[in-house]
Amino acid sequence: MDQATAAAKAPPVPAGDDAGDDAATAVVSLYVKQKKIYARAVSGWFAGWRWAFVWATQLVFYGLPWLQWNDRQAVLFDLGARRFYIFGMVLYPQDFIYLTALLIISAYALFLFTAVAGRLWCGFTCPQTVYTEIFMWVERKIQGDRMARMKRDAGPWNLDRSWRAAAKQAAWIAIALWTGFTFVGYFTPIHTLAQLVSQFALGPWETFWVFFYGFATYGNAGFMREQVCKYMCPYARFQSAMFDKDTLIVGYDAERGEPRGSRSRKADRKTLGKGDCIDCGLCVQVCPTGIDIRKGLQYECISCTACIDVCDGVMDKMNYPRGLIRFDTQNGMAQHLSFAQRMRRVMRPRVLVYTSILLLLVGLLGTSIALRSPFRVDVVRDRGALARIVDNGQVENVYRLQVMNATEQPQQYRIAVKGLPGIMLDGADTVEVGPAQARWMPAAVRVPAEAAASAGAGAHPIQFEIERLAHGKDDPAVQTVEKSTFVVLR
Fold it and tell me: Which of 89, 160, 297, 415 is most buried (most C-beta within 10 Å)?
């Protein structure tokens, strides 16, 4: 009798210590191997809109650095010179408040769009979705659509599979590096950057960020893809806090579609006792995150609407009404609401509050930018000489003024000081600052001995009045006031 036969005839081992030992030594995997998703190409109304947003966003991103404005790059964040150029605006680090306001507006806009239409941002304009769409398009052009890619991946490595894989990777790397180059072009003038690249003279800073941003683009859009949306993006995790049953989502009409089942085009679904869903599985095949929308609302759904387009195509072929999968609300599907009724529910209190706050913030930001002074001034006391007695018993304090010209023309500024009797500025009271430049100048401020004695020892408030001189009707005089203190010795 061989060992296999003996083992087959051996009596079963009763549950006990030995069984417990076997269970204790069993290896249980905590991770499931990720199944590769082969998303199928889809065409339709929503796919057209998705590609329109791809073109719009990428034309802006790739084209904006090459646009010139006043003999300079239209949008340039010059970190070395601490100047941020946005078309006609010149911003300084002191204008950081505008970035804060922009981030707050973006957050409220995200809250509003999510409350109204779910993850519409994710499906159409999120950079992760946009670049994944581009990389998948390249993949389909080189390696074919879903079935062709699956067949090649399941087969051996031959010449056809190898050259297609190499060509795809080369195209992906080229797109990623061009994306990294463009990103750095927002911080280093892109014409200068292109010249440095052509001469193989990129500095360490530019080299690092070109390759880092290119690697991030390649990794996110080409390699990780749906993993970013499902596991890395925090938006997918807290979106449920902004959803309710009147939020527009991509949903499957189970009442109409169930029970699902395959059938011929000529078959009567009512006679067969079937719903409109023919269980073709195309809605799963086109999903970039690999979910089955027929299982209900899932956090992995990015509202790309690919399932809507493909399902509408199937409904057309079956001569069924469109909309088995559609943009709708949970209440709309459950209560069979009309379009007008759904829209009235969409404009609910939380949406109105978000809209009001968003419009208010946008209005305040726009007003602040419109009324923004064409120059800024910082007043810094000279820490090395707080106060001293000079000629005729005058008390002198020394300051340093930084005048920042936020225009692109040379400007002249007149400086005056007020706040104490007889206070005056010793030395030059005008300064010229070049276009979009900043200039430091020392300012010695003196107070007569009698005025200082009457004011008493200690720190006294004063004001520096800085006036930009007029250059005609189109460039009138502008004045700003900066507060400081004048110290009188005991």
Answer: 415
- Span 179-219, pLDDT tens digits: 999 999 999 999 999 999 999 999 999 999 999 999 999 99
pLDDT recorded at residue 75: 95
* Cα distances (angstroms) measured from residue 161 to each of 32, 36, 197, 361: 27, 17, 33, 54
Last residue of a domain, which of 352, 372, 392? Answer: 372
Residue 98 domain flag: yes
Q: Which residues lie across from 401 on neighbouring strands? A: 379, 441
373, two tokens: 């002074």
Can you tell me whether residue 461 is helix, strand or coil? strand
- 15 is a domain residue: no
Q: Are residues 47 and 127 in the same domain?
A: yes
Question: Domain limits at 419?
Answer: 375-488
Task: With respect to residue 4, please indicate whether it lies within any of the assigned structural domains.
Answer: no
**Which residue reads 């034309």 in tokens?**
59
Do residues 173 and 218 touch, judged by C-beta distance below 8 A? yes
Instruction: Give the model confidence (pLDDT) of 62-92 as tens digits.
Output: 999 999 998 899 999 998 888 899 998 899 8
Q: Residue 179 corresponds to which tokens in the numbers above?
A: 């994306």
How many other C-beta atoms lie within 10 A of the C-beta of residue 89? 14
Q: How many domains does the chain have?
A: 2
Distance CA 175, CA 220 (A): 13
How far is Cα 294 from Cα 427, in angstroms, rounded to an integer? 80
* 349: preceding bond cis by omega (within 30 degrees): no
Mean pLDDT of the chain: 88
Residues 6+ apart with CB under 8 A from 335: none
Do residue 314 and residue 264 come from a single domain?
Answer: yes
Phi and psi angles of residue 106, each rounded to the nearest 5 degrees, phi first = -60, -40
> Can you tell me the distance from the alpha carbon of 339 to that of 337, in angstroms, rounded to the nearest whole number?
7
Q: Is residue 126 part of a domain?
A: yes
Alpha-carbon span 289 to 154, nearest angstrom? 21
Return d(Cα 177, Cα 179) in angstroms, integer. 5
Check if the beta carbon of residue 68 is closer than 8 Å to that of residue 56: no
Which pairing describes strands 478-488 and 249-252: parallel, antiparallel, or unpaired?
unpaired
